[in-house]
Amino acid sequence: MDNRLLRAALAELIGTFTLVFIGVLAVIVAVTPGTNSDILVPAFAHGLALLGMVYVFGHISGAHVNPAVTAGLLVGGKIKPLTAVAYWIAQFAGAIIASLLAVALVPDPANYGQTIGIITSDNVWTAAVFEAVLTFMLVSAVYQAAVYGKAGNLAGVAIGLTLAFAIIAGGVFTGASLNPARTLGPALVAGDLSYVLPYLVGIFAGGAAAGLLHSRVFKPES
pTM of the full predicted structure? Predict the structure, then answer.
């Protein structure tokens, strides 16, 4: 692995750490008694964190900070398989470290910041389809705003707001993870992996579907 790839993978680790650390704490805040918070807290916390990471690390690694985004770019031929594997390792590591640290720093957390909702326990595969649809929207925004540069310097804003409105719409139902690393990290810390496999299948499928569509059908004409 060359130095450039190591540098990019480190950026992905730190970027994913930041997104998941902020996200886990925001979910804990949202359900803590006495905070008077609601779904808008995690929605904008995640959205703004992602927006920031796009501008901080976008020029180094592309700021995927999400294995589903990496998968979407891989199937679309925008990155090499070795790069994707390095990114995945870094992203999942960053998420796990962030989840452990966030919960360790909060005294008696109300939850573990998991991405679960009211349909997760009753019908987890329906939740997985929900996640697939929302992830498709996020990776679509990544392709058009960033990969194809259609949003120019506002790419981070477009992508961050897409994540925010996805969480506003879907957070109550599934937790609106849209990110396999965001799902796995808190689940491991909570010791609850019952929903993880369906979520990973749905999220990766949504990202891959968006990658295929935008690289083959919606690719800008030269």
Answer: 0.96
